[in-house]
Amino acid sequence: MTTQPAAFATLCVHAGEIADAHGSPHTPIYTTTTFKFPSTAAVLDVVEGRKAGALYTRYGLNPTIQALEEKLAALEGAEAAWAFCSGMAAESALFLTYGRTGIVCLGDAYGGTLELLSSQLPTLGIPGYFLLGDELDALPSLLKRGAGLVFFETPTNPALEQFDIAAISEIAHAHGALVAVDNTFASPVNQNPLLLGADFVVHSATKYLGGHSDLTAGALMGAKSALAPVWSWRKNLGQAIAPEIAAQLARSLRTLPVRVERQNATAMKVALVMQAHPQVERVLYPGLPDFPGHALAKRQMKGFGGMLTIEIRGGGVAATRVADKLKLFALAPSLGGVESLATQPCTTTHHGLTPEERARRGISDAMLRLSVGLEDADDLIADLKQALG
Ligand code: PLP
User: Fold this and answer.
1) 86: Cβ below 6 Å to ligand 1?
2) Is 1 domain-assigned?
3) Local structure of 344: helix, strand or coil
4) 334 and 192 share a domain?
């Protein structure tokens, strides 16, 4: 009998799961910090890398963590994955391994990433370079100067700007640089950067992968040989995911496509209604035909995601008034959970930037970023309408 390669939803449920001696359908939680061996020779087999196996949980050599990593790799079409205790842990291990000659960050990125690249890593002699979407012509010259890693989010936060993963990877590779895409906003349901030419995918698994706003975790996916040196940084910086969180994350991944496909559909409904609303100046959503990045999104995304940004008529004060009147959308600066969240970027994710820098990045005070959850679409639309008044 021939077996078909498993489809995405099947991988979400079954990839990486360990069949234990008791017939558990899912990987058990191994909370132990260490694992015993029958002999010194068996210890050395694992320590010296001849055999894969459990050894010490901080190393990530724990069956619950290893099972999760196999599932994470499968979902991005990667050879391997490392699971981390947060998205920032995954990013920092990647930057320390591959960014030491300089990191070029394209477009908008999560505030913590921008702070790490612009304030902390330069103190270690690691230069950070920043190019906005209309400044990509300068990328080759930065790469010629020796920057070894290009990093970007697509879609970006909060403007949902699209970056062309295939084209940017081609430029970077022509200059000997590697490419890492933060795929947090899209999730592997909607976009697979490795299949488009990127070398690494980073996730804040705290968002769609976890999906319930109840765990903090990160993931890095890529080729086995490329991930190998990152492992030592994770081990010695103590950044591995805890086994309890690994099991919780694996549980969430089993329902990932069901959640994200519904969130895609609801976000599209919300976007269309908001676009027609007189109090809304502009809706930024990759699925809308008149969105500037729509054609590229259609090419490189399989679904348009659960994130959208609406610009309220009347500016920042009006946007705050709408935010404060929301009842079903919770006012919280995160995303990707089953509950819908709203945030005004100038008061949260981009509060640390000067008004001038926000303006340069096209982030207006009138923006409200929405993370669409799993509530009924009509209820969410009714909430927005009552808040828009
Ligand atoms: N990347 C993106 C796009 C994010 O939104 C965040 C957090 O909000 C991070 C990375 C950092 O992830 P974590 O909070 O899990 O460290």
Assistant:
1) yes
2) no
3) coil
4) no
Interatomic CA distance for residues 193 and 322, integer angstroms: 35
Distances from the Cα of 347 to the Cα of 44, 86, 272, angstroms: 53, 23, 26
The reported pLDDT for the residue numbered 6 is 87
Q: Are residues 247 and 382 in the same domain?
A: no
Same domain? For 274 and 312 the reply is: yes
Q: Is 212 left (phi over 0), alpha (psi -120 to 50) or beta?
A: alpha
Q: How far is CA 152 from the centre of its chain?
A: 11
Q: What pLDDT, on a 0 to 100 scale, did the predictor assign at position 153? A: 98
| Ligand 1 atom 5 nearest Cα | 110
List the domain range (segments joined by +) for residue 179.
Answer: 8-253
pLDDT computed for residue 3 by the predictor: 61
CATH number of 336's domain:
3.90.1150.10
Determine whether the shortest distance from the Cβ of 153 to ligand 1 is under 6 A: yes
Return the residue whose CA atom lies nearest to atom 2 of ligand 1.
110
- Residue where a domain terminates, one of 253, 271, 297: 253
| 216 and 280 housed in the same domain | no
Is pLDDT at 2 greater than 60 in this prediction?
no
Q: Are 155 and 307 in contact (CB under 8 A)?
A: yes
Cα of 268 to ligand 1 centre, how many Å? 23
pLDDT of residue 1: 44
Q: What is the pLDDT of residues 133-153, one digit of tens each?
A: 999 999 999 999 999 999 999
Cβ–ligand 1 contact at 206 (below 6 Å) = yes
Q: Are residues 176 and 72 in the same domain?
A: yes
Kindly state the DSSP code that residue 133 receives in the 8-state scheme.
G
Ligand 1, from 157, 207, 214, 241: best to mutate by most atoms within 8 Å of Cβ? 207
How many domains does the structure of the chain reveal?
2
Residue nearest ligand 1's atom 11 by CA: 87
Tell me, yes or no, whether 249 and 269 share the same domain. no
Q: Residue 235: give its domain's CATH number.
A: 3.40.640.10
Give the separation between CA 202 and CA 151, rounded to whole angstroms.
10
Which residue numbers are catalytic?
Answer: 58, 110, 182, 207
pLDDT, residue 49, reads 87
Cα separation, 15 vs 182, in Å, equals: 22
Do 262 and 247 fall into the same domain?
no
Residue of 88, 116, 249, 335 to test ligand 1 pocket, by largest number of atoms within 8 Å of CB: 88
Q: Is 176 in the same domain as 294? A: no
**Residue 287 clears pLDDT 70, i.e. is over it:** yes
